[in-house]
Amino acid sequence: MRLRFSLPAIPVSLVALALWAVVGGWYVALVPAGLSGTDNIGIVLSTFGACLFLADRLAWRWFACECWAVFFKLWGWGLLLAAWGLVEWLRAFQPRYGWHFAGHWLAFALFVAAAWLLPGRRPGRDAAARRPRDASGPISLRPR
Question: What local confidence, expressed as pLDDT, does residue 139 receive?
Answer without folding.
Answer: 58
